Write a sequence for this structure.
Protein backbone atom coordinates (compact mmCIF):
# COMPACT_ATOMS: atom_id res chain seq x y z
CA UNK A 1 0.00 0.00 0.00
CA UNK A 2 1.08 3.53 -0.67
CA UNK A 3 0.18 6.81 0.99
CA UNK A 4 -0.15 9.50 -1.64
CA UNK A 5 0.32 12.84 -0.04
CA UNK A 6 -0.47 15.85 -2.22
CA UNK A 7 -0.29 19.56 -1.43
CA UNK A 8 -2.39 21.49 -3.92
CA UNK A 9 -4.03 24.84 -4.52
CA UNK A 10 -7.31 24.93 -2.56
CA UNK A 11 -9.48 25.76 -5.58
CA UNK A 12 -8.30 22.57 -7.32
CA UNK A 13 -9.64 20.28 -4.59
CA UNK A 14 -12.91 19.39 -6.30
CA UNK A 15 -11.26 18.50 -9.58
CA UNK A 16 -8.75 16.27 -7.82
CA UNK A 17 -11.48 14.55 -5.81
CA UNK A 18 -13.43 13.87 -8.97
CA UNK A 19 -10.42 12.47 -10.80
CA UNK A 20 -9.61 10.13 -7.90
CA UNK A 21 -13.19 8.96 -7.56
CA UNK A 22 -13.15 7.98 -11.23
CA UNK A 23 -10.10 5.80 -10.55
CA UNK A 24 -12.05 3.95 -7.88
CA UNK A 25 -10.52 5.58 -4.84
CA UNK A 26 -12.96 5.00 -1.98
CA UNK A 27 -11.97 7.74 0.40
CA UNK A 28 -9.47 10.40 1.20
CA UNK A 29 -8.59 12.88 3.92
CA UNK A 30 -8.32 16.64 3.34
CA UNK A 31 -6.48 19.05 5.61
CA UNK A 32 -6.30 22.82 5.26
CA UNK A 33 -2.67 23.81 5.70
CA UNK A 34 -0.35 26.79 5.30
CA UNK A 35 3.14 26.81 3.97
CA UNK A 36 5.59 28.17 1.47
CA UNK A 37 7.63 26.87 -1.43
CA UNK A 38 9.04 28.61 -4.45
CA UNK A 39 5.92 30.75 -4.66
CA UNK A 40 7.06 32.41 -1.41
CA UNK A 41 4.33 34.54 0.17
CA UNK A 42 2.10 37.38 -0.80
CA UNK A 43 2.25 41.09 -0.07
CA UNK A 44 -0.74 42.85 1.45
CA UNK A 45 -0.88 46.63 1.24
CA UNK A 46 -3.02 48.77 3.55
CA UNK A 47 -2.87 52.50 2.84
CA UNK A 48 0.68 52.08 1.67
CA UNK A 49 1.87 49.93 4.57
CA UNK A 50 3.13 46.63 3.17
CA UNK A 51 2.89 43.36 5.03
CA UNK A 52 4.52 40.24 3.72
CA UNK A 53 2.52 37.10 4.32
CA UNK A 54 5.01 34.22 4.37
CA UNK A 55 2.61 31.30 4.53
CA UNK A 56 -0.02 30.72 1.90
CA UNK A 57 -3.10 28.58 2.35
CA UNK A 58 -2.97 25.19 0.64
CA UNK A 59 -4.88 21.95 0.87
CA UNK A 60 -3.21 18.68 1.74
CA UNK A 61 -4.80 15.44 0.50
CA UNK A 62 -3.94 12.11 2.06
CA UNK A 63 -5.05 8.99 0.27
CA UNK A 64 -3.93 5.40 0.83
CA UNK A 65 -4.20 3.11 -2.21
CA UNK A 66 -3.08 -0.39 -3.28
CA UNK A 67 0.41 -0.48 -4.80
CA UNK A 68 -0.84 -1.04 -8.34
CA UNK A 69 -3.07 2.02 -8.22
CA UNK A 70 -0.46 4.44 -6.84
CA UNK A 71 1.06 5.50 -10.12
CA UNK A 72 -2.36 6.27 -11.68
CA UNK A 73 -3.41 8.23 -8.60
CA UNK A 74 -0.29 10.36 -8.77
CA UNK A 75 -0.83 11.03 -12.46
CA UNK A 76 -4.49 11.91 -11.89
CA UNK A 77 -3.65 14.35 -9.11
CA UNK A 78 -0.97 16.03 -11.21
CA UNK A 79 -3.31 16.33 -14.18
CA UNK A 80 -6.19 17.72 -12.15
CA UNK A 81 -4.22 20.11 -9.96
CA UNK A 82 -1.88 21.62 -12.50
CA UNK A 83 -2.38 25.24 -13.57
CA UNK A 84 1.12 25.69 -14.93
CA UNK A 85 1.74 28.62 -12.60
CA UNK A 86 4.08 28.74 -9.66
CA UNK A 87 2.51 27.39 -6.46
CA UNK A 88 0.75 24.33 -7.88
CA UNK A 89 2.13 22.15 -5.09
CA UNK A 90 3.81 18.75 -4.76
CA UNK A 91 2.98 15.06 -4.53
CA UNK A 92 4.76 12.59 -2.25
CA UNK A 93 4.40 8.83 -2.16
CA UNK A 94 5.16 6.85 1.01
CA UNK A 95 5.00 3.19 1.93
CA UNK A 96 2.25 2.12 4.31
CA UNK A 97 2.75 -0.90 6.57
CA UNK A 98 -0.71 -1.69 7.74
CA UNK A 99 -4.33 -0.60 7.50
CA UNK A 100 -7.38 -1.65 9.52
CA UNK A 101 -11.04 -0.72 9.07
CA UNK A 102 -12.19 0.02 12.59
CA UNK A 103 -15.82 -1.08 12.18
CA UNK A 104 -15.18 -4.54 10.71
CA UNK A 105 -11.58 -5.29 11.53
CA UNK A 106 -10.76 -5.86 7.82
CA UNK A 107 -7.07 -5.43 7.16
CA UNK A 108 -4.74 -3.90 4.54
CA UNK A 109 -6.07 -3.80 0.93
CA UNK A 110 -9.52 -4.89 2.13
CA UNK A 111 -9.64 -1.95 4.48
CA UNK A 112 -9.00 0.70 1.83
CA UNK B 1 -23.52 75.85 8.90
CA UNK B 2 -25.21 78.37 6.75
CA UNK B 3 -28.02 79.10 9.07
CA UNK B 4 -25.96 79.16 12.20
CA UNK B 5 -23.47 81.30 10.41
CA UNK B 6 -26.12 83.57 9.00
CA UNK B 7 -27.74 84.20 12.34
CA UNK B 8 -24.33 84.53 13.92
CA UNK B 9 -23.55 87.14 11.35
CA UNK B 10 -26.86 88.86 11.93
CA UNK B 11 -25.91 89.47 15.50
CA UNK B 12 -22.73 91.21 14.52
CA UNK B 13 -23.18 92.59 11.04
CA UNK B 14 -25.81 95.29 10.75
CA UNK B 15 -25.68 95.15 6.96
CA UNK B 16 -26.78 91.57 6.83
CA UNK B 17 -29.25 92.28 9.56
CA UNK B 18 -30.91 94.86 7.37
CA UNK B 19 -30.92 92.48 4.42
CA UNK B 20 -33.18 90.08 6.29
CA UNK B 21 -35.73 92.34 7.93
CA UNK B 22 -38.32 89.60 8.23
CA UNK B 23 -36.22 87.77 10.75
CA UNK B 24 -35.27 90.90 12.61
CA UNK B 25 -38.71 92.36 13.09
CA UNK B 26 -40.81 89.30 13.45
CA UNK B 27 -39.01 86.35 15.03
CA UNK B 28 -40.01 83.21 13.14
CA UNK B 29 -42.18 80.68 14.90
CA UNK B 30 -41.18 77.10 15.46
CA UNK B 31 -41.44 75.21 12.20
CA UNK B 32 -42.51 71.59 12.38
CA UNK B 33 -40.74 70.71 9.11
CA UNK B 34 -37.46 72.20 10.33
CA UNK B 35 -37.85 70.55 13.69
CA UNK B 36 -38.55 67.14 12.17
CA UNK B 37 -35.50 67.35 9.91
CA UNK B 38 -33.25 68.48 12.76
CA UNK B 39 -34.46 65.68 15.02
CA UNK B 40 -33.58 63.29 12.20
CA UNK B 41 -30.22 64.95 11.52
CA UNK B 42 -29.27 64.75 15.17
CA UNK B 43 -29.88 61.00 15.18
CA UNK B 44 -27.93 60.63 11.92
CA UNK B 45 -24.88 62.48 13.25
CA UNK B 46 -24.91 60.47 16.49
CA UNK B 47 -24.95 57.33 14.32
CA UNK B 48 -21.76 58.55 12.65
CA UNK B 49 -19.85 58.14 15.93
CA UNK B 50 -21.61 55.06 17.31
CA UNK B 51 -21.45 52.75 15.56
CA UNK B 52 -20.05 54.39 12.39
CA UNK B 53 -16.69 55.73 13.48
CA UNK B 54 -16.31 53.01 16.12
CA UNK B 55 -16.55 50.29 13.45
CA UNK B 56 -14.50 52.22 10.88
CA UNK B 57 -11.61 52.45 13.33
CA UNK B 58 -12.32 49.12 15.06
CA UNK B 59 -11.88 47.14 11.86
CA UNK B 60 -8.51 48.75 11.13
CA UNK B 61 -6.74 47.84 14.38
CA UNK B 62 -5.36 44.47 15.36
CA UNK B 63 -7.76 41.96 16.90
CA UNK B 64 -6.30 42.37 20.38
CA UNK B 65 -7.29 46.06 20.41
CA UNK B 66 -10.74 46.13 18.82
CA UNK B 67 -12.72 46.46 22.05
CA UNK B 68 -10.45 49.22 23.31
CA UNK B 69 -10.97 51.07 20.05
CA UNK B 70 -14.75 50.68 20.17
CA UNK B 71 -14.66 51.75 23.82
CA UNK B 72 -12.98 55.03 22.89
CA UNK B 73 -15.84 56.09 20.60
CA UNK B 74 -18.48 54.82 22.97
CA UNK B 75 -17.02 56.34 26.14
CA UNK B 76 -16.35 59.64 24.37
CA UNK B 77 -20.02 59.74 23.38
CA UNK B 78 -21.20 59.39 26.96
CA UNK B 79 -18.57 61.61 28.53
CA UNK B 80 -19.02 64.47 26.10
CA UNK B 81 -22.79 64.32 26.40
CA UNK B 82 -22.47 65.09 30.09
CA UNK B 83 -19.86 67.82 29.62
CA UNK B 84 -21.91 69.41 26.86
CA UNK B 85 -24.91 69.49 29.17
CA UNK B 86 -22.91 70.91 32.06
CA UNK B 87 -21.06 73.73 30.30
CA UNK B 88 -20.00 72.88 26.72
CA UNK B 89 -23.10 74.18 24.98
CA UNK B 90 -23.05 77.33 27.05
CA UNK B 91 -19.51 78.37 26.20
CA UNK B 92 -19.92 77.42 22.55
CA UNK B 93 -23.31 78.74 21.53
CA UNK B 94 -24.41 81.46 23.92
CA UNK B 95 -23.45 85.10 24.06
CA UNK B 96 -20.18 85.74 25.84
CA UNK B 97 -20.72 89.42 26.49
CA UNK B 98 -17.46 91.39 26.26
CA UNK B 99 -15.49 88.25 25.40
CA UNK B 100 -17.94 87.08 22.76
CA UNK B 101 -15.35 87.18 19.98
CA UNK B 102 -13.48 84.34 21.66
CA UNK B 103 -15.79 82.41 23.98
CA UNK B 104 -19.46 82.11 24.87
CA UNK B 105 -21.02 82.76 28.25
CA UNK B 106 -21.72 80.72 31.36
CA UNK B 107 -25.40 81.45 31.70
CA UNK B 108 -26.39 78.06 30.28
CA UNK B 109 -24.47 76.20 33.00
CA UNK B 110 -26.38 72.91 33.43
CA UNK B 111 -28.61 74.15 30.61
CA UNK B 112 -30.51 76.08 33.26
CA UNK B 113 -32.39 78.55 31.04
CA UNK B 114 -33.38 75.91 28.49
CA UNK B 115 -37.06 75.37 29.21
CA UNK B 116 -39.62 73.55 27.10
CA UNK B 117 -40.26 76.45 24.75
CA UNK B 118 -36.80 77.99 24.54
CA UNK B 119 -35.24 78.78 21.17
CA UNK B 120 -31.74 79.89 20.26
CA UNK B 121 -31.18 83.06 18.23
CA UNK B 122 -28.85 80.90 16.11
CA UNK B 123 -31.71 78.54 15.16
CA UNK B 124 -35.02 80.27 15.82
CA UNK B 125 -37.32 77.85 14.00
CA UNK B 126 -36.52 74.76 16.09
CA UNK B 127 -36.66 74.12 19.84
CA UNK B 128 -33.41 74.92 21.60
CA UNK B 129 -33.40 71.39 23.01
CA UNK B 130 -33.04 70.09 19.45
CA UNK B 131 -30.39 72.65 18.52
CA UNK B 132 -28.41 71.86 21.67
CA UNK B 133 -28.64 68.14 20.84
CA UNK B 134 -27.68 68.64 17.19
CA UNK B 135 -24.60 70.60 18.20
CA UNK B 136 -23.83 68.00 20.86
CA UNK B 137 -23.46 65.30 18.22
CA UNK B 138 -20.81 67.45 16.49
CA UNK B 139 -19.05 67.98 19.81
CA UNK B 140 -19.03 64.19 20.27
CA UNK B 141 -17.64 63.16 16.91
CA UNK B 142 -14.87 65.75 16.75
CA UNK B 143 -12.84 64.52 19.75
CA UNK B 144 -13.78 60.91 18.94
CA UNK B 145 -12.10 61.30 15.53
CA UNK B 146 -8.78 61.96 17.28
CA UNK B 147 -8.79 58.36 18.51
CA UNK B 148 -7.62 57.29 15.05
CA UNK B 149 -4.21 58.78 15.76
CA UNK B 150 -3.96 57.25 19.25
CA UNK B 151 -4.87 53.72 18.29
CA UNK B 152 -3.25 50.72 19.96
CA UNK B 153 -1.26 52.53 22.65
CA UNK B 154 -3.07 55.13 24.78
CA UNK B 155 -4.09 54.64 28.40
CA UNK B 156 -7.86 54.71 28.78
CA UNK B 157 -7.72 56.99 31.84
CA UNK B 158 -5.53 59.48 29.99
CA UNK B 159 -7.82 59.20 26.96
CA UNK B 160 -10.89 60.21 28.97
CA UNK B 161 -9.14 63.17 30.60
CA UNK B 162 -7.77 64.22 27.22
CA UNK B 163 -11.25 64.06 25.67
CA UNK B 164 -12.73 66.19 28.45
CA UNK B 165 -10.00 68.82 28.43
CA UNK B 166 -9.81 68.97 24.64
CA UNK B 167 -13.57 69.42 24.30
CA UNK B 168 -13.68 72.37 26.68
CA UNK B 169 -10.37 74.02 25.79
CA UNK B 170 -10.22 73.44 22.03
CA UNK B 171 -13.51 72.38 20.48
CA UNK B 172 -15.83 74.74 22.33
CA UNK B 173 -13.79 77.91 21.71
CA UNK B 174 -13.23 77.12 18.02
CA UNK B 175 -16.90 76.25 17.49
CA UNK B 176 -17.75 79.57 19.11
CA UNK B 177 -15.33 81.50 16.87
CA UNK B 178 -16.91 80.17 13.71
CA UNK B 179 -20.55 79.36 14.52
CA UNK B 180 -21.37 80.78 17.93
CA UNK B 181 -20.92 84.46 17.08
CA UNK B 182 -17.14 84.68 17.49
CA UNK B 183 -14.50 86.45 15.46
CA UNK B 184 -13.98 84.06 12.53
CA UNK B 185 -17.64 83.86 11.60
CA UNK B 186 -17.96 87.62 12.01
CA UNK B 187 -14.98 88.18 9.73
CA UNK B 188 -16.79 86.21 7.01
CA UNK B 189 -14.88 82.92 6.95
CA UNK B 190 -17.11 80.24 5.40
CA UNK B 191 -17.41 76.87 7.12
CA UNK B 192 -20.75 75.30 6.41
CA UNK B 193 -20.61 72.17 8.53
CA UNK B 194 -17.18 72.01 10.10
CA UNK B 195 -14.24 71.63 7.72
CA UNK B 196 -12.01 73.50 10.12
CA UNK B 197 -14.04 73.36 13.35
CA UNK B 198 -14.47 69.60 13.18
CA UNK B 199 -12.06 67.98 10.76
CA UNK B 200 -8.97 70.17 10.62
CA UNK B 201 -9.34 70.57 14.39
CA UNK B 202 -9.51 66.83 15.08
CA UNK B 203 -6.81 66.10 12.49
CA UNK B 204 -4.40 68.61 13.99
CA UNK B 205 -4.97 67.22 17.47
CA UNK B 206 -4.37 63.75 16.06
CA UNK B 207 -1.06 64.76 14.53
CA UNK B 208 0.14 66.35 17.78
CA UNK B 209 -1.04 63.33 19.78
CA UNK B 210 0.65 60.87 17.40
CA UNK B 211 3.93 62.76 17.74
CA UNK B 212 3.67 62.92 21.54
CA UNK B 213 2.69 59.28 21.99
CA UNK B 214 5.38 57.99 19.67
CA UNK B 215 5.19 55.09 17.28
CA UNK B 216 3.41 51.85 18.00
CA UNK B 217 5.81 49.15 19.11
CA UNK B 218 6.76 46.99 16.17
CA UNK B 219 5.77 49.49 13.51
CA UNK B 220 7.46 48.49 10.29
CA UNK B 221 8.48 45.04 11.53
CA UNK B 222 5.36 43.46 13.02
CA UNK B 223 2.25 42.73 11.04
CA UNK B 224 -0.21 45.51 11.85
CA UNK B 225 -2.65 44.69 9.09
CA UNK B 226 -6.28 45.55 9.84
CA UNK B 227 -7.92 42.52 11.42
CA UNK B 228 -11.35 42.93 9.83
CA UNK B 229 -11.84 45.42 7.03
CA UNK B 230 -15.47 44.36 6.69
CA UNK B 231 -16.13 46.32 9.90
CA UNK B 232 -14.38 49.32 8.37
CA UNK B 233 -16.56 49.13 5.25
CA UNK B 234 -19.70 49.01 7.40
CA UNK B 235 -18.40 51.90 9.50
CA UNK B 236 -17.51 54.05 6.49
CA UNK B 237 -20.93 53.36 4.98
CA UNK B 238 -22.65 54.46 8.19
CA UNK B 239 -20.48 57.59 8.15
CA UNK B 240 -21.52 58.32 4.57
CA UNK B 241 -25.24 58.02 5.33
CA UNK B 242 -24.96 59.83 8.65
CA UNK B 243 -23.13 62.68 6.96
CA UNK B 244 -26.39 63.83 5.36
CA UNK B 245 -27.40 64.84 8.87
CA UNK B 246 -24.04 66.50 9.32
CA UNK B 247 -24.06 68.59 6.13
CA UNK B 248 -27.70 68.90 5.10
CA UNK B 249 -28.58 69.22 8.77
CA UNK B 250 -26.23 72.16 9.03
CA UNK B 251 -28.79 74.17 7.08
CA UNK B 252 -30.66 74.02 10.42
CA UNK B 253 -33.81 74.23 8.33
CA UNK B 254 -35.54 71.89 5.95
CA UNK B 255 -35.18 74.01 2.82
CA UNK B 256 -33.37 74.50 -0.50
CA UNK B 257 -30.00 74.82 1.22
CA UNK B 258 -30.41 71.47 2.93
CA UNK B 259 -31.23 69.90 -0.44
CA UNK B 260 -28.18 71.38 -2.18
CA UNK B 261 -25.93 70.42 0.72
CA UNK B 262 -27.15 66.84 0.48
CA UNK B 263 -26.55 66.68 -3.26
CA UNK B 264 -23.08 68.22 -2.94
CA UNK B 265 -22.21 65.73 -0.19
CA UNK B 266 -23.15 62.70 -2.25
CA UNK B 267 -21.38 63.91 -5.39
CA UNK B 268 -18.13 64.87 -3.66
CA UNK B 269 -18.01 61.61 -1.73
CA UNK B 270 -18.43 59.54 -4.88
CA UNK B 271 -15.76 61.60 -6.66
CA UNK B 272 -13.28 61.14 -3.84
CA UNK B 273 -13.90 57.38 -3.54
CA UNK B 274 -13.23 56.94 -7.27
CA UNK B 275 -10.21 59.29 -7.23
CA UNK B 276 -8.47 57.52 -4.32
CA UNK B 277 -9.25 54.13 -5.83
CA UNK B 278 -7.82 55.08 -9.23
CA UNK B 279 -4.73 56.77 -7.76
CA UNK B 280 -4.02 53.63 -5.76
CA UNK B 281 -4.76 51.37 -8.72
CA UNK B 282 -2.17 53.21 -10.79
CA UNK B 283 0.49 53.52 -8.09
CA UNK B 284 0.06 50.36 -5.97
CA UNK B 285 -1.44 48.23 -8.78
CA UNK B 286 -4.58 47.21 -6.89
CA UNK B 287 -7.81 49.08 -6.08
CA UNK B 288 -8.06 48.21 -2.39
CA UNK B 289 -11.31 48.21 -0.45
CA UNK B 290 -9.66 50.20 2.32
CA UNK B 291 -8.66 52.73 -0.33
CA UNK B 292 -12.21 53.12 -1.63
CA UNK B 293 -13.74 53.68 1.80
CA UNK B 294 -10.89 55.96 2.86
CA UNK B 295 -11.47 58.00 -0.28
CA UNK B 296 -15.16 58.28 0.50
CA UNK B 297 -14.40 59.57 4.00
CA UNK B 298 -11.87 62.04 2.56
CA UNK B 299 -14.56 63.34 0.21
CA UNK B 300 -17.08 63.66 3.02
CA UNK B 301 -14.52 65.61 5.05
CA UNK B 302 -13.54 67.96 2.23
CA UNK B 303 -17.10 68.78 1.16
CA UNK B 304 -18.13 69.51 4.75
CA UNK B 305 -17.14 73.20 4.81
CA UNK B 306 -18.27 73.71 1.22
CA UNK B 307 -21.49 71.72 1.11
CA UNK B 308 -23.94 74.62 1.45
CA UNK B 309 -21.98 77.04 -0.70
CA UNK B 310 -21.09 75.18 -3.90
CA UNK B 311 -22.98 73.76 -6.86
CA UNK B 312 -22.74 70.22 -8.18
CA UNK B 313 -19.70 70.93 -10.37
CA UNK B 314 -17.81 72.50 -7.50
CA UNK B 315 -18.68 69.53 -5.33
CA UNK B 316 -17.34 67.06 -7.89
CA UNK B 317 -14.04 68.92 -8.24
CA UNK B 318 -13.63 69.19 -4.47
CA UNK B 319 -14.31 65.45 -4.15
CA UNK B 320 -11.83 64.45 -6.86
CA UNK B 321 -9.17 66.71 -5.36
CA UNK B 322 -9.78 65.33 -1.86
CA UNK B 323 -9.44 61.72 -3.03
CA UNK B 324 -6.06 62.34 -4.61
CA UNK B 325 -4.61 64.76 -2.03
CA UNK B 326 -5.67 62.65 0.96
CA UNK B 327 -4.34 59.49 -0.72
CA UNK B 328 -0.96 61.16 -1.12
CA UNK B 329 -0.98 62.52 2.42
CA UNK B 330 -2.14 59.37 4.20
CA UNK B 331 -0.09 56.91 2.18
CA UNK B 332 3.02 58.69 0.96
CA UNK B 333 3.61 61.81 3.06
CA UNK B 334 3.19 59.84 6.28
CA UNK B 335 5.86 57.43 5.10
CA UNK B 336 8.27 60.24 4.33
CA UNK B 337 7.92 61.93 7.72
CA UNK B 338 7.54 58.71 9.69
CA UNK B 339 4.99 59.87 12.31
CA UNK B 340 2.63 57.12 13.40
CA UNK B 341 -0.80 58.58 12.75
CA UNK B 342 -2.08 55.02 13.06
CA UNK B 343 -5.46 55.28 11.31
CA UNK B 344 -4.77 58.52 9.42
CA UNK B 345 -6.67 61.03 11.48
CA UNK B 346 -4.40 63.83 10.23
CA UNK B 347 -3.91 62.39 6.75
CA UNK B 348 -7.64 62.22 6.04
CA UNK B 349 -9.41 64.60 8.44
CA UNK B 350 -6.71 67.23 8.92
CA UNK B 351 -5.58 67.46 5.32
CA UNK B 352 -9.07 66.91 3.90
CA UNK B 353 -10.57 69.52 6.23
CA UNK B 354 -7.96 72.12 5.35
CA UNK B 355 -8.26 71.37 1.64
CA UNK B 356 -12.04 71.65 1.82
CA UNK B 357 -11.89 74.93 3.75
CA UNK B 358 -9.53 76.44 1.18
CA UNK B 359 -11.49 75.13 -1.83
CA UNK B 360 -14.67 76.56 -0.28
CA UNK B 361 -13.05 79.93 -0.86
CA UNK B 362 -12.53 79.03 -4.51
CA UNK B 363 -15.92 77.52 -5.36
CA UNK B 364 -18.42 79.31 -3.06
CA UNK B 365 -21.26 80.83 -5.09
CA UNK B 366 -23.55 83.64 -4.05
CA UNK B 367 -26.28 82.10 -6.22
CA UNK B 368 -26.18 78.99 -4.05
CA UNK B 369 -26.07 80.72 -0.72
CA UNK B 370 -26.45 84.46 -0.08
CA UNK B 371 -24.35 84.13 3.07
CA UNK B 372 -21.38 83.93 0.70
CA UNK B 373 -22.36 87.45 -0.28
CA UNK B 374 -19.58 88.02 -2.81
CA UNK B 375 -19.01 84.41 -3.79
CA UNK B 376 -15.59 82.80 -3.95
CA UNK B 377 -12.45 83.28 -6.00
CA UNK B 378 -14.09 81.96 -9.19
CA UNK B 379 -16.68 84.71 -8.86
CA UNK B 380 -13.91 87.26 -8.53
CA UNK B 381 -13.83 87.49 -4.75
CA UNK B 382 -10.19 86.73 -4.04
CA UNK B 383 -10.27 88.16 -0.49
CA UNK B 384 -12.42 85.18 0.50
CA UNK B 385 -9.31 83.04 0.03
CA UNK B 386 -7.47 85.10 2.63
CA UNK B 387 -10.32 84.61 5.08
CA UNK B 388 -10.29 80.87 4.45
CA UNK B 389 -6.54 80.67 5.02
CA UNK B 390 -6.98 82.70 8.20
CA UNK B 391 -9.63 80.22 9.32
CA UNK B 392 -7.36 77.25 8.58
CA UNK B 393 -4.28 78.87 10.11
CA UNK B 394 -6.02 80.02 13.30
CA UNK B 395 -7.60 76.62 13.87
CA UNK B 396 -4.37 74.76 13.21
CA UNK B 397 -2.17 76.92 15.43
CA UNK B 398 -4.61 77.24 18.32
CA UNK B 399 -5.46 73.55 18.28
CA UNK B 400 -1.85 72.40 17.98
CA UNK B 401 -0.66 74.56 20.88
CA UNK B 402 -3.48 73.75 23.29
CA UNK B 403 -3.49 70.04 22.41
CA UNK B 404 0.24 69.96 23.08
CA UNK B 405 -0.22 71.60 26.49
CA UNK B 406 -3.03 69.23 27.52
CA UNK B 407 -1.08 66.13 26.50
CA UNK B 408 2.16 67.40 28.07
CA UNK B 409 0.38 67.90 31.40
CA UNK B 410 -1.11 64.41 31.22
CA UNK B 411 2.16 62.87 30.08
CA UNK B 412 4.11 64.18 33.07
CA UNK B 413 1.38 63.46 35.63
CA UNK B 414 -0.52 60.24 34.98
CA UNK B 415 1.23 59.22 31.75
CA UNK B 416 -0.45 58.82 28.38
CA UNK B 417 0.93 55.57 27.05
CA UNK B 418 0.39 52.02 28.23
CA UNK B 419 3.38 49.90 29.26
CA UNK B 420 5.21 47.93 26.62
CA UNK B 421 3.89 44.70 28.09
CA UNK B 422 0.30 45.87 27.84
CA UNK B 423 0.84 47.12 24.32
CA UNK B 424 2.24 43.80 23.14
CA UNK B 425 -0.32 41.69 24.95
CA UNK B 426 -3.24 43.83 23.81
CA UNK B 427 -5.33 46.65 25.20
CA UNK B 428 -8.59 44.68 25.36
CA UNK B 429 -7.53 42.17 27.97
CA UNK B 430 -5.37 44.57 29.97
CA UNK B 431 -7.45 47.77 29.96
CA UNK B 432 -10.94 46.30 29.82
CA UNK B 433 -10.54 42.68 30.97
CA UNK B 434 -12.32 41.36 27.90
CA UNK B 435 -11.42 39.90 24.54
CA UNK B 436 -13.28 39.11 21.35
CA UNK B 437 -13.79 35.38 20.99
CA UNK B 438 -14.21 33.72 17.64
Amino acid sequence: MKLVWAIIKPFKLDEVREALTQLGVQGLTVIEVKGFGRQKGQTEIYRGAEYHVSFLPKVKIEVVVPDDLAEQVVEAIIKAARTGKIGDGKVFVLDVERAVRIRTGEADAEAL
Amino acid sequence: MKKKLSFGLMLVLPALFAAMPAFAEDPPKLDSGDTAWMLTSTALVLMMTIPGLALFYGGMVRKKNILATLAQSFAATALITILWMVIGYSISFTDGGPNNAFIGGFKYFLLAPMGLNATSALAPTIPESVYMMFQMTFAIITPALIAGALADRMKFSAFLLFMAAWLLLVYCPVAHWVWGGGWLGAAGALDYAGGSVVHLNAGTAGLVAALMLGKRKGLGTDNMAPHNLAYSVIGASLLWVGWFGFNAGSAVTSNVNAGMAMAATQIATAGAAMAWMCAEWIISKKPSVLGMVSGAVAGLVAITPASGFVDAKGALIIGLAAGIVCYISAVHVKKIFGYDDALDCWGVHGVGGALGAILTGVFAMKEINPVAAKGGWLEGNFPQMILQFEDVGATFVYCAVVTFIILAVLKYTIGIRVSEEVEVEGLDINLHGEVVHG
